[in-house]
């Protein structure tokens, strides 16, 4: 089994009424429950946006420097995610597709590297 991160950015979500958000929440929770029932869900949370950012931290001269909230320059903010443990890319795509369809906004899928697994650089070379 391999772990995957399925995410969406808050900016990818068009404006919704309160009723639309309730409907999307119900639809999204149904997919999360399916993931739970299939035993693939590790963890999920869809309640993130710009207002939930606590701080940013960077290393300056070997010491952590904290800044309240996100960097002002940031144009995208994580809106939600699910971490699943599934057999292959096809299964990860299936669950991302279920979420994209239920919520009607884009999802992005990332595969976590396993222990000892080579990472690729931006060109696709190892």
UniProtKB/TrEMBL annotation:
Residues 18-98 form the YCII-related domain. Transmembrane segments: none annotated. It holds the Pfam family YCII. Belongs to the YciI family. PANTHER family: BLL7171 PROTEIN, BLL7171 PROTEIN-RELATED. This is YCII-related domain-containing protein. It comes from Micromonospora arborensis.
